[in-house]
């Protein structure tokens, strides 16, 4: 379900809560953050997944963003999954313009990384996500 469509008061009725978000400037999407802030009860086990277009994965992004809420409810992140996601919020041309303000080394690293994230998540990423979901069962 989309986080905006979830009644926060129902979260405590589950055995496991699975949260998913794209990562935007090292932060979770606003709908997930708002949902968690409004939750009256959270199950003790939480699993998370994320897509990101950054040069690196931020495995602590959930802890940094909603960790206080999780602690308040005695909830623990038991597992995480991540994969690349193409930055569809900026056109390739806009990204190139941004990269032009970087040093040549960093601009090249960004260009190379763009090629890796283009079209992601892809079929392989989705298969890995399915395997992650099955591992939670």
Q: State the CATH architecture of the largest domain.
A: 3-Layer(aba) Sandwich
Q: Treating each run of at least 4 consecutive H or I residues as one helix, how many helices? A: 5
Shape: elongated
Report the helical percentage. 40-55%
Backbone structural class: alpha/beta
Gyration radius, to the nearest Å?
Answer: 17 Å
Total beta-strand segments: 4
CATH homologous superfamily grouping of the largest domain:
Flavodoxin domain
Distance between the termini: 18 Å
CATH T-level topology of the largest domain:
Rossmann fold
**Biggest sheet record:** 4 strands, mixed
**Integer average pLDDT:** 93
Strand order across the largest sheet = 2-1-3-4
Strand content: 15-25%
Unreliable spans are none
Number of domains: 2
Describe the structure.
- The chain is an alpha/beta fold and 137 residues long.
- The chain folds into two domains: 3-85 and 120-136, 3-Layer(aba) Sandwich (Rossmann fold), CATH 3.40.50.360; 89-119.
- The protein is built from five helices and four strands; from the N terminus they run ββαβαβααα.
- The chain has helices at residues 30-38, 61-72, 92-99, 104-117, 123-136; strands at 16-24, 27-28, 45-52, 76-84.
- It has a four-stranded mixed sheet with strand order 2-1-3-4, with helices on both faces.
- The radius of gyration is 17 Å and the shape is elongated.
């Amino acid at each position: 379900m989309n986080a905006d469509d979830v009644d926060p008061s129902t979260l405590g009725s589950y055995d496991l809560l699975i949260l998913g978000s794209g990562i935007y400037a090292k932060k979770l999407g606003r709908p997930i953050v708002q949902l968690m802030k409004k939750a009256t009860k959270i199950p003790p086990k939480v699993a998370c997944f994320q897509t990101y277009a950054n040069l690196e994965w931020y495995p602590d992004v959930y802890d940094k963003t909603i960790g206080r809420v999780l602690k308040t409810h005695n909830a623990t992140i038991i597992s995480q999954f991540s994969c690349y996601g193409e930055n569809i919020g900026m056109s390739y041309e806009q990204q190139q313009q941004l990269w032009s303000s970087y040093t040549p080394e960093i601009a090249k690293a960004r260009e190379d990384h763009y090629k890796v994230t283009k079209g992601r998540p892809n079929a392989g990423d989705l298969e890995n996500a399915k395997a992650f979901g099955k591992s939670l069962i």
